[in-house]
Amino acid sequence: MQVGPPSAAGQPPPYQPSLPGRPNPWPVVAAVLAGGWTVAVTVATQAGGWLTDQVLLGFGRDRVGWLWPVLGLTSVVLVGTPALLLAMLPRSAAVRATGRAWLAAALVLGLLTLLRVVPPVHHEAYLAALAGTAALTALVLRWSARRSASAGPAGPGVRATTGPVPLLAVAAGLALLLPWVWLGALGGLLETALALLAAAALGVLAATLLDASFWSRFAVGQPPRPARLVLVGGLVAGVALLLLGAGAGQSGAQLPALLTLPPVSFALAALWAAIWRPAAHGAANVPDRAADAVHAGRAATGWLVGLATLGPLAFADPEEITLLLIGTRDVPFWVAAAAGAGLAVAALVAIGYAVLLARPAARTPNRRVAAFTAVVLLLTVGVVDLGPGQPALHGERLLVVLREQADLTGLPTGVPGRAGRDARAAEVYRRLVTTADRSQTDLRRELTRLRLDPVSYYLVNAVEVDGGPAVRAWLARRPEVARVLVSQRLRPLPAPAGQNRGTAAAPTGPEWNIRQLGADRVWSQLGVTGAGMVVGSSDSGVDGNHPALRAAFRGGDDSWYDPWDGTRTPTDQGGHGTHTVGSAVGRGGIGVAPDAQWVGCVNLDRNLGSPGHYLDCLQFMLAPFPAGGDPFRDGRPERAPQVLTNSWGCPPIEGCDRNVLRPATAALDAAGIFVVAAAGNTGPWCASIDDPPAPYSDVLTVGAVDAQRRVAQFSSRGPVPGGPGKPDVLAPGVGVVSAMPGGGYAALDGTSMATPQVAGVVALMWSANPALVGDLARTRQILRDTATPAEPTYRSGNPADACGGPANVTGAGQVDAYAAVRAAQR
């Protein structure tokens, strides 16, 4: 039986569309799970990679060159696999667009991560590589996409609003830049220019990944649905921007982008919604402006993402985003603060733009209003930089080491004791200055002509200058130049880092370490307290007003030098230097030689140094000069301290190589100045005594023991390649109580704590026998011969893991102050 009118003979019935079934929810569920997985993997690999770098740095180990390439490949596999499945399998166009965007972003992350094989000390080279790679990748993606026909939903019922949108993106980007301008500081001129290029290239890359074809999948319908575009498209784009941000910067500098870039996606979605706004009810349709809409959307994405990534790239040095500075309000604190502020600004911009632009009835601000907003924010950025910010450029410098070093052979032996030592120091100073003056003349003239601000050194024949990779390459080709190193310069902070103060009670008698060394017996039984000797400290500074140290300061106009900040009186923010000087000459039971005097120099600023400033202080110790004086002309070698304590080392991250300070310690040795250096806190690994000056044969290298005379696990060990056995001796270095800034005390661990005690023992020996002053070989031999056995410790607890022999763990043993002074008196 037929129902309805019969069809024409031989003709099929007309097509009747079936009612749509319920949409399949599983592709959306899969996309949500893949997005959560992508976020977890990205955050874990980026944070884990940075922490691995920091742990290696803290233990004094070399960077693992393959770490970041492996992490990048891991991210590509773990993130790219589900993204590829989303791009291929579901029928939903939006889900497939999600998969394509995440897959492309994962591949970009893998590619950008490879660039982290460039050492952080060569930041300009990294930024140049980042800019070039991001720009080239964007070109390849645009060429391969061929999406000129996918211009989005602009057309009947839609009016393309293009004019003010890029300006609104610029305004949002400048707002995101404000926390970095306020709390950060720029590097050098070239470094800043390359950061701008890199940020621009990343913006272009983001505009290519998140183009009109991507956004149109979330704006389906006639007219488009802004809420879906902002909420769903913003979430998907946020994951893609997370992947892009994870590759935008050296290890550490990319971490802020993980917070600030994802919320930017919602502001971008609102801008695209404004571009594709439905026409008002009853309004005539405007002509199709799809091409203008695409260009406006790309420009908006490029500006907003580029300015968002510029902050951490330009205003934070990745070398300073380090756990070594995490204990104070230093760069890691301010980077975290800027990232948190950036997250808040990004969230406010996203909410504001969504409310302002994404509602169907909303009116887009006209071009003049958008331009005015952008100009106001640009002026605000300038005012903040010049006001509460840290204006000017603070790039790294270069240390140019010359081939010719002074000939210090054939020095007159002179009379024994202080007079002979002073005569040798004067002759060493004369030869060093003469060699540097003669050999640096042409180079200094050329560097001055090029306005590279040269600073000359003589202790190592070297010149420190401004300049980046191009200047470095030019200098390295000069015939008189041996090599060119990077000399670290810290960027300023928006507020002082704060002073480290102690909380331990003031000692009531000789501390345990003083008793273990036998120094208290030297005072009471031998009547020797270090009188007449001067110990020089190169460290974070000294609190000259501390009650245990105030009376021991030598005074005069040549006993304090601060090449970092130019302070004129002894001061110390970090506390490390005050603690070490207290262990050497402090009174009240903390110092080994309480009646010796001290002079000081600041070679560490906020726990980081540079080859240039290490040399500044070592030169000052050879020939002190008055404040504002010229080290070449005003040096006073007769005022040099007899003993130097050096609880620092210069690792590659600060610009040093193994041999850069070798001429300096050789010159001090030739001048009869006894140099004591910390072995380092990178044990229990073997061959971990590697940062200058600890490996050098002309310094006495000190490891640490605890109260049971066991070698501390952290104490660095030998062997030293091609050199003598190290460490030379040991001293107490676990729970050592000494002075801290502000009049307090603290118990600290480290070979840094052990080293000044040995310097104090040398001061006792030379005070007991002034004829021994300057006789370095005999003094070292006495210290070794009179040392007492110490119990070695091993990395695995197995004595077979003895670093080639127990001597590479314990040296000659723990210093015995009483026995050493008795031997010195004979």
Automatic annotation (TrEMBL):
Residue positions of the active site: 539 (charge relay system), 576 (charge relay system), 752 (charge relay system)
Pfam family, one: Peptidase_S8
Protein name, as recorded: Subtilase family protein
Region (Disordered): 1-20
Transmembrane spans: 26-46, 66-89, 101-119, 125-144, 165-182, 194-215, 227-249, 255-275, 335-357, 369-387
Keywords: Hydrolase, Membrane, Protease, Serine protease, Transmembrane, Transmembrane helix
Signal peptide: none
Gene Ontology molecular function: any one: serine-type endopeptidase activity
Family, similarity comment: Belongs to the peptidase S8 family.
Species for this entry: Micromonospora cremea
Domain Peptidase S8/S53: 530-790
Biological-process GO terms, alphabetical: proteolysis
Biased composition (Pro residues): 11-20
InterPro entries the UniProt entry points to: Peptidase_S8/S53_dom, Peptidase_S8/S53_dom_sf, Peptidase_S8/S53_subtilisin, Peptidase_S8_Ser-AS, Peptidase_S8_subtilisin-rel
